[in-house]
Protein: Oligopeptide ABC transporter, periplasmic oligopeptide-binding protein OppA
Organism: Kibdelosporangium persicum
Amino acid sequence: MHHRKTMSAVAVVAASALLLTGCFASGSGQSTDSSGDGRIKLAMLQPPRSGLSPFSDDAFKLSRWSTAETLVNLDEDGDARPALATEWKRVSGTTWELTIRQGVTFHDGSALTAEAAVNTLTRATKASPKPRILDGVELTAKAEGGKVLVTTGQPDPLVPQRLSSPQLAILAPSAYGADGKVNPVGTGSGPYKLVNVNGTTTATLDRYDGYWGEKAKAAGIDASFVPDGTARAAAIRSGQAHIVEAVPVSQAALLDKETVTEVPMPRTNTLYLNTKSGPFTDPGLRAAARAAINAEEIVKGVYEGRADVAKGLLGPALPWAAAGRKELTDRTVAADPKGAAITLATFSDRAELPEVASVLQQQLERAGFKVQQVVREYAHIEQDALAGKFDAFILSRATVLDSGDPVAYMKSDFTCDGSFNIAQLCDQNVDKAVDKATAIEAGDQRRAAILEAEAAVLRTDAAIPMLHERVIQGDATSVVDSARDPRERLLITAATRLK
């Protein structure tokens, strides 16, 4: 069992606070804890990777800063709600019509129009690489009668949900260059205007007083990019930051409890078992592996209690899953492993996973398996995992992608033609259940079909969900109304302020 040395960790925190003071943004205005409209100091996990292009993962930074907005938002259940579009309807099997909100101006002073929205969507389809929400999707957009018409190559009941992706945030036409580059500085429509980006170090945003909705209560945001987790935790302790993304598990216990919030994430740590070759082609041995795993031991020991024991593939970040899930019946009976030799692999990029592998090895060996571990960096192990070269693979996997819907994850990971099928699973019942869910409109019936598909996957024991991760957010006691968003789309909203 892994035990962390608290006293040495405290010393590292203190040293980091001293050494990394210069890494934090000073901002364009005065920052204060005592003024309700003061500037919010934010320490973020990752620096921009693509110059804050909204067509990349950097889009989630623009969304979390409330500077770029989408046509559609999602509620807690993943249902579509109005944003820059006030309403939408399906006008044919493949075409949706959206009504654009009136009275919206971009930060450069230009007006939001149907043509501006179409410009963004069209450029997204031509971007290289395309936003991942458009992977495998043929989408075109045109303006007609002040409306936006979005057409897909195949009927797609999730078009509104797709349009909620931060990678399809609508920017002013001035944001888009002839060279294909996108500049989000001063071209969003949210309550905060991005005014400066200092490479991969800092970004500065000011309140936008021309915002169409509720005006921001804080004067601005001074964001710093601080990849070192110890330094981010130290920033809360020292007052260098008011809000901190992704506090490491090892640092959370060192912070004042009032400054720590744990947010369930739609991310599951799962043991994938190779159903095509090796010992786990035997359903009885897969059932034996399932019976051997004690997820509670992993949560308590490796995650220090800061995770949730899995009851299924979908966790507490999707409240409807627990509410609608039925107890599984007709499970395969566990066979005696009789010393069956297996390779158990994972990757080192996520610090907890090698520890999880060590605990799992002990549990599986107690059950009668003989286990050999393989641990590499993800870039050096993914290809072998997808090729089925391991008997078992531990993966931390997002269960809802940019549409906020888990069907794409189930299709890619567990169907015969899935592009990320580490378990090499090809089961007629699973494919049928996933196809059924795919075709249903968003809402309660689709969610019920998704849970049927989850049950079909679990009955195969090709995937054994162990735990659901939480993201740990740090908020100074002076912060009011920061967002705790499982999808990590929101962080600072118009309502966020300092006491």
